[in-house]
Structure formats: structure tokens, C-alpha cells
Amino acid sequence: MTDAVRQADAFLARYGLDPREVDVDACARAFQADMERGLQGEPGAWMLMLPTYLSQEGELPEDEPIIVIDAGGTNFRVGLVTIRSSGVEIEDLKVSPMPGSQAPISWEEFVDQVAEAVLPLTGRSRKVGLCFSYAAEILPNRDGRVVRFTKQVQVSGSEGKELGRDISAALAAKGAPGTSFVVLNDTVAALLGGVASLRDERFDSYIGLIYGTGVNTCYAERRKALEQVTTPWAAETMLVNMESARFDGAPMSEFDRRLDRESVDPGLCHYEKMVSGRYQGDVIYQALRQAAADGLFSGGLNDWLGKLEGLTSVQADAFCARPYGEGLLAAACTCETDRELLYTIIDRVIERSARLVCANLAGILLQTGAGEHIHRPACIIAEGSTFYKGHLFRGKIQRICDDYITGKLGRYYAFRQVADANLIGTAAAALLNG
After folding, report:
1. CA triplet 190, 193, 195: central angle to 5 degrees?
2. pLDDT tens digits, one per residue of 143-176
């Protein structure tokens, strides 16, 4: 270990950002305990453990086209998906800006725009799966009641409105009666996309992981553990949207606390603010600014960082991918020691994120008992740019999960990437639960 690495590690330890502060086993068990509180509907439970009223059980019907809507943070996609024995067929896919992302609109305008986009496809199907990447309460009839739009999408009068009911009524008024809707969120869609796409493989269970701008997980919970679900439920399991961004059991650094105080929702979603792509650059920025204030770098870099007004996760990752390149941080370095100090600090932040994501996944395996058989592992369907595009993260999460999940817990898992998982999973939701 070089002097620069020792200096960086000592600095991080002083402010509580040493990744070794995160005991993976302790955090995994805290995740499981928080899951149990949420499942029991305890007041104040940080993870909400939202029932989806969806199941992954049953044989997927083949050759039946399903209309799919993917209402994402930026893009709005509509198309037809058909599950076939030879694979998945996606047709007539149209991509446009998310309604309400370009300018504020009313709920009535939102519903009309969605219905207009769906209408040309209703001649081939009247079953619709809607992946809604915003806060919504999923109802026992599998409709979704809007809680709020976020991500700069502005739709006035939407709170409390039911997506499927109102869009179906608009379609009927346009000459397409009888449409049925199944509403789900993107994490659940990712999981079901794996179920539909990986039918030639055998897994013990499935976990959906979104790790990009935000973070969330979902899994199938046993019926007897769903104490807050009072609606009769015949299937053995139900998919549960954990809202794991809200986990509050990990040790926070001084920089996490600063970021939280300055956020729009202080006191909430601490886990997401510690690990997700949206916030990771801010944590690194806070750490580098403090390091400069403490005089950790050379004088020129200390001064430059003191004037830096912000840093994104992409910029930090670009430096680790090419520390001698032309990126923002690489260009600011004038000596080898500064370069090594910068790299070490960013590396340790990513290391901590990987330890926390591993704890999240391990908590699910502890809760379900899945992954005990080496020949039939638990399948983790991972979606998100931070998971796949981060220069350091993928190698770290694999190593840490191997060490802890397999090495310590004796559980087996496999990461899988599924192309168009959201679209395919949305269709599978409508086929299995429509």
C-alpha cells in the first residue's frame, strides 16, 4: 500500500466513509428485519413492502399479443409484445417524450394522450400492461392509484386517480371498449422480464434489482408472510415492491448527512442517497471538497476543487476509467500523488455502494431461504446504467457477493441481464395476471 492510499483511507475513516464501516452481514440482517416490519405493516417501517397483487406463478400463454406501455422518467413507449416458443416478439414500438415532461398538463390531457397512443393497437389486443415508474398504490384489481408524479413530470390533478380505469374509459369513448389493465412498477417488470425470457433456465427464485439513477428491489414473498394483505389471494406467493431506497440501517458518513440535509426530502431514502447514480456523484463531491479543505492534495488541485461547483457520478466514473484521459478530474491532476488520492477516494465510495447493494440482495435471500442449491441458484435480474456502465461497480459487486452470499451464507445466485426486460415483464404481468 502506498502512502497516498494510506492518506486517502485515513481521511475517509475520519469522516466515516471508510467502506469497512459497512459490515455486510450486519446490514443484510438489518435489511431482513426491516423487511419483516414492513410486511407486518408496522407503523414507521422504513421499507414499505408494497403488495403488487401480481404473481410470477403459472405457465405463460404463448402467441397472444399484449399492448405494453412503459411510462418512464424520460421516454414513453407503447408497443405490442408477444411471447412465443421461439422467443419474444416486439412490434410497432413507438417512443415519445413522457407526457407532462415537456410542459405541464392536466390529468385529462395525460389520459387522452395515453389513450391516443394505445388506440391504434386495440385492433390486435384489448389487454394492456402498464409499467408506471412513479409512485402509485397498486390495488387488488391490479389497477394503480397515482400517488404523485416526480422526475420533473408535471400532471396536475393526478393524485388519487386510477390509471387503468380512466385510460380504459377514454379508449371506450374513442371506440375501443373492453380494455383491461394491469399496472406495475419498473422493478417488478424487470423481475417478470426475467421470468418470461429465461424459461430455458431453472432458478430457485427471482429478484428484480434496479440500480441506476435510483435503486429498488422486489421479490416473491410467501402468502403466509403477507400479513398486511387482507384481500383473498390464491397463489402461493405474491411479488412485493420493497421500496428499498428507504432502508435506514446503514452507517452514514458526514458527507451523507450533509447531502441529506441539503436534499429536497431530508430524513428519507438514506440508502438511495448513499448508493444510487443520482446521488453518488454528490457524495464523492462532498468528500473531495472536504479533502481539499483539509489540504490532502497539492495546492493547485486543492484550489481547483474548492471552486468546483458540482460533480456527477458519470464524471467520477470517467476518471476511474481513464485517469490519464481528458475528463474533468483527469485534466485537473498535475502530479501522480493527486491522481492516486482521487482514484482511491472514488474507488472506496463505489466499494461501499457495492457492499450495501450486496447486503440488500442478501437480506432477500435470508428472508426467503432461496439459493441453497448450487445447481439452481437465485436469479437476480439487474437493470440500470449504474450497474452495467459503471467502470468499477460490476467487478466489485460480483466479488463481494461471491465472498458474502456464497462464501459466508452458503447461498448461490446468478446475475442476468435481459434485453427489453421492462417491456417483456409488463406483457408477462398482463398474461399471468390479467
Report:
1. 115
2. 999 988 876 788 999 999 999 999 999 999 999 9
One-letter amino acid at 269 equals C
Q: Cα separations (Å) of 210 from 140, 162, 305, 387?
A: 24, 25, 32, 8
CATH superfamily of 66-184: ATPase, nucleotide binding domain (3.30.420.40)
Quick one: CA torsion of 216, 219, 221, 227, rounded to 10 degrees? 20
**Left (φ > 0), alpha (ψ -120 to 50) or beta: where does 6 sit?**
alpha
Q: Grid coordinates representing 10? A: 485515513
**CATH annotation of 1-49+201-418:** 3.40.367.20
224 has pLDDT over 90? no
Q: Decide if 165 contacts 419 (C-beta within 8 A).
A: no
Q: What is the widest separation between alpha-carbon atoms in the chain? A: 73
Give the strand pairing for 205-211 and 378-383: parallel
| pTM for this predicted structure | 0.91
260-298 pLDDT, tens per residue?
998 878 888 899 999 998 899 999 999 999 999 999 999
- What residues have CB less than 8 Å from 42, skipping those under 6 apart? none
* Number of neighbours of residue 29 by Cβ within 10 angstroms: 16
Report whether 175 contacts 39 (CB < 8 A).
no
H helices of 161-250, in order, are 163-173, 186-197
